[in-house]
């Protein structure tokens, strides 16, 4: 018996849903010259960031010829840590998990890490692994997230 034909329309619909533009406009979040995420234009004005020693700021609003955006200053992991903490304190981050995720640029080069709770508000891309199994008779086993799990669950079981 031949395995069932793969439903290409289903896959096309899933892929189309994954590349929808954001509901509200977003601007780039830069680390150095690299784009590492995106935020709503005035989103980061909602958090209170204390200046670093010497009066320097770790986050600056910047206008470039092509667009307005936010530039992260200093070490990426340290600065994102301060931003994540401020987002958490302002109630603008997800559930805090003490879990650092890799932060990459648009080419996939690792620039630092950030607390998982901050990746969505900062528009930082994350990577995940999903396993799919196929039985000898052509059926597929696909994982399904429990409806009671949070949107950004921690890895592993509880």
What does this entry look like structurally?
- The chain has 158 residues and is an alpha+beta fold.
- The chain has a single domain, classed as Transcription Regulator spoIIAA (2-Layer Sandwich), CATH 3.30.750.160.
- Helices cover 16% and strands 24% of the residues.
- It contains 2 helices and 8 strands.
- It has a 4-stranded mixed beta sheet with strand order 2-1-4-3.
- The longest helix has 14 residues, at 76-89.
- The protein is elongated and about 60 Å long.
- It starts with 7 loop residues before the first helix and ends in a 16-residue tail after the last strand.
State the gist of this model.
The protein is an alpha+beta fold. The chain has helices at 8-18, 76-89, and strands spanning 27-31, 34-39, 59-63, 68-72, 100-104, 110-115, 132-134, 140-142.
SSE diagram, text form:
Layout: H1 8-18, E1 27-31, E2 34-39, E3 59-63, E4 68-72, H2 76-89, E5 100-104, E6 110-115, E7 132-134, E8 140-142
Parallel strand pairs: 1-4
Antiparallel strand pairs: 1-2, 3-4, 5-6, 7-8
Features:
24% strand, alpha+beta, four-stranded mixed β-sheet, two-stranded antiparallel sheet, Transcription Regulator spoIIAA, disordered C terminus, 158 residues
